[in-house]
């Protein structure tokens, strides 16, 4: 195989991969924008108050956490920064949100991208969610203990 045919095959393969991902990402982003504009995500976050209790964080933390989990780090960071500027988040809230989002940001988008290249949907989805829940839970307990000794 000469260089030009290798280059052509690589280019076509890359374009096919990008198009496969675009078929997932574009509709998903449209749906997420509709949910965001209709304030449906805000209503859902209110129902997720048990998560705030689990991690011992403020209820105001649930919305930025959910946005980062669903929309990804860019949207999540924007909401987190906005919440910090409005002074709605304590330091602990911020740490727990960041720790959770390290393992579980853009959970739908990233999961579907990996499924497009052959990953198991449910295994990946639940593994990421479980790791994020466990790590954030234990981090919230460690932060509480560290605060008691300072």
Relative strand content: under 5%
Structural class by SSE content: mainly alpha
Tell me the count of domains: 1
Q: Mind summarizing the main beta sheet? A: none
- N/C terminus separation: 66 Å
Specify the overall morphology. elongated
Order of H and E elements? HHHHHHHH
Got a strand count? Answer: 0
Mean pLDDT: 84
Residues in helix, %: over 70%
H/I helix tally = 8
Low-pLDDT stretches: none
Rounded Rg: 19 Å
Organism: Keratinibaculum paraultunense
InterPro entries: Gate_dom
Keywords: Membrane, Transmembrane, Transmembrane helix
Domain Nucleoside transporter/FeoB GTPase Gate: 18-108
Question: Summarize this, please?
Answer:
With 150 residues, the protein is mainly α. It has one domain. The chain is built from 8 helices and no strands.
Helix-strand blueprint:
Elements: H1 3-37, H2 40-47, H3 49-55, H4 62-71, H5 73-85, H6 91-104, H7 107-116, H8 121-149
Helix pairs in contact: 1-7, 2-4, 4-5, 4-6, 6-8, 7-8
What does this structure look like?
Helix 1 (3-37) runs antiparallel to helix 7, helix 4 packs antiparallel against helix 5 and helix 7 (107-116) packs antiparallel against helix 8 (121-149). The protein is elongated. It has helices at residues 3-37, 40-47, 49-55, 62-71, 73-85, 91-104, 107-116, 121-149. The chain has one domain. By secondary structure, the protein is mainly α. It starts with a helix and ends with a helix. The chain is built from eight helices and no strands. The model has no long low-confidence stretch (mean pLDDT 84). Residues 18-108 form the Nucleoside transporter/FeoB GTPase Gate domain. Pfam families: Gate (PF07670). Keywords: Membrane, Transmembrane, Transmembrane helix. It comes from Keratinibaculum paraultunense. This is Nucleoside recognition protein.
């Amino acid at each position: 195989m000469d260089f030009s045919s290798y280059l052509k095959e690589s280019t076509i393969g890359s374009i096919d991969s990008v198009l496969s991902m675009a078929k997932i990402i574009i509709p998903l982003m449209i749906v997420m924008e509709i949910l965001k504009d209709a304030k449906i995500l805000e209503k859902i976050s209110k129902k997720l108050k048990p998560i705030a209790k689990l991690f011992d964080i403020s209820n105001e933390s649930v919305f930025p956490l959910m946005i980062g989990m669903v929309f990804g780090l860019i949207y999540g960071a924007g909401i987190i920064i906005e919440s910090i500027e409005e002074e709605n988040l304590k330091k602990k809230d911020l740490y727990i949100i960041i720790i959770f989002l390290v393992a579980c940001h853009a959970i739908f988008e990233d999961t579907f991208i990996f499924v497009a290249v052959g990953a198991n949907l449910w295994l990946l989805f639940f593994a990421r969610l479980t790791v994020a829940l466990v790590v954030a839970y234990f981090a919230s307990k460690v932060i509480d203990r560290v605060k008691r000794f300072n």
